[in-house]
Design brief:
heterodimer, A: alpha+beta, 6-stranded antiparallel beta barrel, 4-stranded mixed β-sheet, 10 strands, elongated, B: alpha/beta, 6-stranded parallel β-sheet, 14 helices, 6 strands
Chain lengths: ~375, ~375
């Protein structure tokens, strides 16, 4: 009998020795300061998740829900939504001012679509020994879906003026610990849930990136002075598209402008003369130096090709005594064809058909002829 | 997985993207940060790799690709161009980006961003896309909200990042508000080195009113939790229109350092060699419980603003020249001067200052 009693006492002592440090640790981590410290210093997600659950015991929030909110990998949206509902219910049952507000926000944001802010917008200000949240010991600042209204939840009884806007006050950091844990769980779940929204955002950025790459690879080069001159147009000066938290903004400020300026643009071509009123067209060609004085190019939304028109001047074979004036048509990146009248010199009134090197070499290949020979 | 992802954004100039780590632009930056980490007693026991991951963000290829295209077109033109002034101008364009050149490699980056029509958007998209990709990968892989994001931007990178963050958080991307201000994404700490955002700002309203890249305050939301603005008093680049917002609260901090260990005080590694710079950054990430103020002060107080030279006379000379330089800088752009109105006035003042200081620079030319 005595042996049995000693045996039980022995088991009790061993059990106490084993569990007391854990209980003490659990108690310590239920303090928001210690909890924040722990989160900061561990990269072990399992430990962090377990500690997060600390102020919300199993009978309030089942371990499966905690796992659905914080566990590794992407979960089914329905699974996460159910866990968020559990979290909202659990915090509401805590029956405090913060928990009711938190549960309301969580329920509201759980079902919002991508075109609203899909997150429980709680910016945690860790109690780091820093007294600088505008002089207010503020646990977090929160917003509601689609709006920027924020609420400061202060801790303690500081009288700092910035704390006057605080609507909820926690008496101490240990009292605030469940709120901190709950908001981190909520945020974690909502970040999981908003994966599709992030995918959509990335697609928009990737498409914009692709458009810029197409403009670079397939577009008509604009020299630095053409870019500088483009700033004369208002749309090019619109630097602040979507900068000021614009609710109406969708894809502005990302894509290149579709109408682009041609201005004092030097180019090369191959000229075929004798295309004037009484001239005799010739297959003999000369290199032509073109200067497109002014014009434009227009791109489709994917920027894979372009059309354009410009007016300008040209000289053939570096003969500056016989300048020509006319226009150039750009059809996709491959075809650039122009018609230029000679306005002075021996060939005045003659006209030339000028094609880009690309076109000339393509026609030359078809005809098995090199025009510049 | 590290809890803090820190984006590193470079400034103007060639940024090598070599095949091996030692050839990449961000390698010296990470090395300087790691050296700083090891200099603080409380951090020596912590593994940086477990807490912080550095993610480089590059936009240099936008400039290089453009210059490459201009150069190839100009080279084709110059072959047919008769000799003359026009030909030499076209030849000059043909050399763009071909050989190391301060104008094409450095100055042009700034001009392209400021005057390159709508190409500022290309830079914003390039930076935003890399940020969004990194966020998506971390949050999807990690599956929780534990990962936090911060940024260190340098010089031109401060202006580009400022614009990119404004667009990323200012409006929706298509129909998605995943990165919009007020959502789950924000920067825990945004540290700018030689901030030129104000110099390169050309929006319709004042930068400080228009931007969302400001500390989050109960009265006004911001995209940043803590904003650290670092400036070397002897660095001329941010001086013409110094980034100096007022009433941004205590989570905006300006940190002015005055060390001169290299001739190029604008270099990011020169900034990061000062323990006040790295210390304040790490402290804002980890908090003062983990990294107390006393520990930061202890290391920072041992730091010498002047280079470790045996010749005391030379040290005194450097001190004197740098002090005079700082006085001239302030006189040119701050004390008793009207705010800069335009680019012409800016260029005029810079030229005047350069002429005045041409001898001083010679006196410290022995620095590395």
């Amino acid at each position: 009998m005595t042996g049995c009693l000693y045996g039980r006492l022995y088991i009790l002592v061993v059990w106490l020795l084993l569990t007391l440090p854990q209980l003490a640790r659990a108690q310590a981590t239920c303090d928001a300061r210690a909890l924040a410290d722990l989160l900061l210093n561990t990269s072990d997600q399992a430990v962090a998740a377990a500690q997060l659950a600390c102020p919300l015991p199993d009978h309030l929030l089942p371990a499966t829900s905690v796992d659905a909110l914080t566990g590794q990998g992407v979960r089914e949206p329905e699974q996460v939504r159910a866990a968020l509902s559990e979290l909202a219910r659990a915090t509401r049952e805590a029956g405090t001012a913060w928990s009711a507000a938190f549960a309301d926000k969580l329920s509201e944001q759980r079902d919002v679509a991508c075109d609203q802010t899909q997150s429980l917008d709680f910016t945690t200000t860790y109690p780091s020994g820093d007294d600088d949240t505008e002089g207010c010991d503020c646990l977090w600042v929160s917003g509601r879906a689609g709006s920027q209204v924020r609420t400061c939840y202060r801790v303690g009884t500081t009288d700092a003026p910035a704390c006057e806007i605080a609507q909820v006050t926690f008496a101490s950091w240990p009292k605030a610990a469940p709120a901190l844990a709950a908001q981190r769980l909520g945020r974690s779940g909502l970040i999981k849930l908003s994966k599709s929204c992030r995918d959509q955002a990335r697609k928009v950025l990737r498409d914009a990136h692709k458009a810029w790459n197409n403009l670079r690879d397939n577009g008509y080069l604009q020299y630095p002075w053409e870019l500088a001159a483009s700033r004369a147009f208002k749309s090019y000066r619109n630097y602040q598209d979507c900068f000021n938290s614009d609710p109406a903004c969708r894809s502005d400020g990302l894509m290149p402008e579709r109408w682009r300026l041609v201005f004092f643009h030097p180019a090369l071509g191959i000229a075929f003369s004798g295309f004037g009123k009484q001239g005799k067209p010739s297959a003999d060609a000369a290199a032509a130096l073109l200067l497109e004085l002014a014009g434009f190019t227009l791109y489709p939304s994917d920027f894979k090709y372009y059309f354009g028109l410009s007016a300008g001047a040209a000289v053939l074979g570096a003969n500056f005594g016989e300048p020509r004036v006319g226009g150039l048509v750009h059809l996709t990146r491959w075809v650039h064809v122009g018609y230029y009248w000679c306005v002075a010199g021996e060939h005045a009134r003659d006209a030339s058909l000028i094609a880009s090197f690309d076109v000339a070499s393509w026609v030359g290949k078809l005809m098995n002829k090199n025009f510049l020979q | 997985m590290p809890r803090h992802i820190v984006f590193l954004i470079h400034g103007m100039g060639l940024q090598p993207a070599g095949d091996q780590d030692r050839e990449k632009w961000f390698t010296p930056m990470v090395a300087a940060l790691d050296k700083g980490w090891k200099s603080f007693a409380p951090l020596q026991a912590l593994q940086r790799e477990r807490l912080i991951e550095y993610v480089p963000i590059s936009y240099d290829e936008v400039f290089r690709n453009y210059l490459g295209k201009v150069s190839s077109h100009a080279q084709a033109l110059s072959a047919f161009m008769p000799a003359g002034k026009l030909a030499s101008f076209i030849n000059e364009l043909g050399d763009a980006g071909e050989a190391p050149d301060f104008f094409w490699d450095d100055v042009f980056d700034v001009l392209f961003y400021r005057y390159g029509a709508d190409h500022f958007r290309q830079l914003h998209v390039t930076v935003s896309d890399q940020i969004a990709k990194a966020v998506q990968e971390r949050w999807d892989r990690q599956g929780n909200a534990d990962t936090e994001f911060s940024m260190i931007a340098h010089s031109l990178g401060t202006a580009v990042a400022h614009g990119a963050l404004n667009r990323l958080g200012g409006g929706k991307l298509g129909t998605s508000a995943a990165f919009k201000l007020g959502g789950p994404f924000f920067l825990k700490t945004y540290m700018t080195l030689a901030n030129v955002s104000q110099v390169l700002w050309w929006g319709e309203h004042a930068l400080y009113d228009a931007t969302i890249v400001r500390p989050n305050m109960p009265t006004r939301p911001g995209y940043v939790d803590t904003f650290l603005n670092v400036r070397n008093a002897a660095d001329p680049f941010p001086m013409p229109r110094r980034f100096a917002p007022v009433n941004w609260g205590r989570r905006y901090r300006e940190l002015v350092v005055q060390h001169v260990h290299m001739l190029n005080v604008h270099d990011y590694c020169h900034y990061l060699c000062h323990p006040r710079v790295t210390g304040n950054f790490f402290q804002s990430l980890l908090g003062k419980l983990v990294f107390p103020v006393v520990a930061l002060d202890e290391t920072a107080q041992k730091f010498d603003d002047l280079p470790p030279l045996d010749d005391e006379a030379q040290r005194a000379k450097i001190r004197q020249v740098v002090s005079a330089f700082i006085v001239e800088l302030r006189a040119a752009f701050e004390e008793g001067q009207a705010p800069l109105e335009g680019t012409v006035e800016l260029v005029a003042r810079v030229a005047r200052l350069a002429w005045k200081l041409r001898k001083s620079v010679g006196a410290i030319a022995s620095l590395p």
